[in-house]
Design a protein that fits this description.
- By secondary structure, the chain is of the alpha/beta class.
- It has two domains: about 160 residues, Aspartate/ornithine carbamoyltransferase (Rossmann fold, 3-Layer(aba) Sandwich); about 150 residues, Aspartate/ornithine carbamoyltransferase (Rossmann fold).
- Helix content is about 35%, strand content about 15%.
- It contains twelve helices and eleven strands.
- The strands form three sheets. A five-stranded parallel β-sheet has the order 9-8-7-10-11. The chain has a four-stranded parallel β-sheet with strand order 2-1-5-6, sandwiched between helices. It has a two-stranded parallel ribbon with strand order 3-4.
- Helix 1 packs across helix 12, helix 2 packs across helix 12 and helix 6 packs across helix 12.
- The chain binds N-acetyl-L-norvaline and phosphoric acid mono(formamide)ester.
- The site of phosphoric acid mono(formamide)ester has 9 residues, from helix 2.
């Protein structure tokens, strides 16, 4: 595997989960694989889990890591070609990317959707420029439309906790005060659609995700109906995808918050969220603190998903 930006790059999911569970049993068995290899992690946006778990995974493999927060201390980067650079951005991404490639063997990129152009976001303009111009393998640490390291960790977590062969998994929108990307729900749907689970999506009208991510999943505009019989409830906020509201908040309806009453509609479901989460907007204190909450195991599995991805990239060098 050279680059990792979508579920397609990981191939067979059974093998990927099997490898992840083996790595989890013995995460220090491959300490020579990354010897004298350098990982450069580039953040255009904030992070807690991705930063720590990916660095930890790299350390497990004996790699060195360099972390660059582009917005703190680096030159501000112009991303548009053809711009007369007489403004506040002293450097262009088209020089910065190959320069960054000089100092490392593998590059991780976090660059959220900008919400100024749906075309730019959905063509993955930024991460594709890294793939094209860095000369290095590139993996997504959440790009404009997907967060595959998160989805892989979520899949590992469901496989660890499921008690039936074909669990019902519900991805539900929940309210949030600020506009958030569609990357996490898009990606979760993309991965769930590759399993044999019963996978459904619940969101208010106006919040349908892009059809290529919804796939064959049934979409409910009534959350209670969707939650009935659920084995896993995966909550997440996202901003509107459909025009003319792309990237906008069109509802903060707290009837969609996941509460004990909502969880009572399910088949004693586990609660999942990628974090960071706003309590009592997305989920009540009681639910996130309950024994059925998997938010911490999910975060722990981020180290494992990152390690499998780094191992596969290192093996391809
Ligand atoms: C980001 C998002 O919704 O995509 C990162 C989640 C992993 N969340 C926020 O910006 C709060
Ligand atoms: N879940 C996740 O990616 O968290 P961070 O934004 O903190 O990295």
């Amino acid at each position: 595997m050279r680059n990792f930006t979508t579920v397609d790059d990981i191939g067979d999911l059974h093998n990927a989960v099997k490898q992840a569970l083996e790595v989890k049993q013995n995460r220090f068995a491959y300490q020579n694989l990354g010897r004298n290899r350098t990982l450069l992690m580039i953040f255009f946006n904030s992070s807690l889990r991705t930063r720590l778990s990916t660095q930890k995974a790299a350390m497990n493999l004996g790699m060195n890591t360099i972390v660059l927060d582009v917005n703190q201390g680096a030159w501000k980067l112009e991303t548009e070609r053809g711009v007369i650079m007489d403004g506040d951005k002293p450097e262009h991404l088209l020089e910065a990317i190959p320069v960054m490639g000089c100092y490392c063997d593998v590059i991780g990129v976090r660059a959220f959707a900008g919400f100024t152009s749906k075309d730019d976001d959905y063509s993955e303009k930024i991460i594709n420029q890294f793939i094209k111009y860095s000369g290095r393998p590139v993996f997504s640490m959440e790009a404009a439309t997907r967060h595959p390291l998160q989805s892989f960790a979520d899949l590992i977590t469901i496989e660890e906790y499921k008690t039936v062969q074909r669990p019902k998994v519900v991805l539900t929108w929940a309210p949030h005060p600020k506009a958030l990307p569609q990357a996490v729900p898009n990606s979760f749907a993309e991965w769930m659609n590759r399993t044999d689970y019963e996978f459904v999506i619940a969101n208010p009208e106006g919040y349908d995700l892009a059809p290529q991510f919804v796939g064959n999943a049934k979409v409910y505009h009534n959350q209670d109906e969707a939650l009935r019989g659920a084995d896993f409830v995966y909550a997440k906020n996202w901003s509107a995808y459909q025009d003319p509201n792309y990237g906008k908040v069109i509802s903060t309806d707290r009837n969609w918050t996941i509460t004990t009453e909502k969880m009572a509609l399910t088949n004693n479901a586990y609660f999942m969220h990628c974090l960071p989460v706003r309590r009592n907007m997305i989920v009540s204190d009681d639910v996130i603190e309950s024994e059925r909450s998997l938010v911490i195991p999910e975060a722990a599995n981020r180290e494992i998903s990152a390690q499998v991805v780094l191992m596969r990239i290192l093996q391809s060098l």
